[in-house]
Amino acid sequence: MTKEKIFDFLLEGISSDIIGWLMRDFGYSLSEAISTWYNSETFEKVSNKKTGMYIASPAYNYHFLKSELRSGRFGV
Length: 76
Known about the structure:
The protein is mainly α. It is built from four helices and no strands.
């Protein structure tokens, strides 16, 4: 498996978990959860290989997303 495929696999797994949690925790529809995740600054950071966030657990990344949703900014 190439490094790119590994990256894509990890990002897909994180995204799947986080989208499910957004639906469960916030009552979002599937489309709302997808839009929230993929349009977030947190997703931007997780999908940037330089940050290394793609190797962290989905729960770790979800913590940052919830913080972003509360404050309107990443990492606050």
